[in-house]
Write the structure tokens for this entry.
Amino acid sequence: AQSVTQPDIHITVSEGASLELRCNYSYGATPYLFWYVQSPGQGLQLLLKYFSGDTLVQGIKGFEAEFKRSQSSFNLRKPSVHWSDAAEYFCAVGRGQGAQKLVFGQGTRLTINP
Amino acid sequence: DVKVTQSSRYLVKRTGEKVFLECVQDMDHENMFWYRQDPGLGLRLIYFSYDVKMKEKGDIPEGYSVSREKKERFSLILESASTNQTSMYLCASSPPGPTGELFFGEGSRLTVL
């Protein structure tokens, strides 16, 4: 069965520092991979997605992620975080026809120190 | 912009009560979803609907049912609420095809006493 693991429950970084959030997936075929962000009191918003092609994908808000098949990973990165990036981040893998049904990881809560 | 509206942001119910959570989307999306969000568990799929009157069980359907009589509306029903159903419930919609992009509502936080 498909699964997603986000090893870090909570990460704290200083404003302006670089960020990497880890995501590992388990899926038999070529995966459809996603990162979503949930700001406090809000629903989830798509940051970026990988279906095929270039393994480095760019998303909104200056985020990027790299698909590494050999490591079954899809880590999210940002070179310099802003206080507004404080949120919870979810990695997900698509399954089923059209990858419509997503399996989400446990989430990583990001805190930004001023 | 796509808008997914969940009618109740906060609900408090008693054990055994019947609970309706309503979700409406305004982008004519075929697919609609109900997820449950719990700390440390992420989001888990309860039910999925890919068309009017069509539904499919997700990973944790026990204790829940759904209704989709109109394309824009997808309701989650707790026939007899229990304390272990205290949670945040998120509705989402998406167009057909392999986009994978779900549009989420802001959530309904349900407390069952």
About this structure: Chain A has a mean pLDDT of 92. Chain A touches chain B through 27 residues (CB under 8 Å).
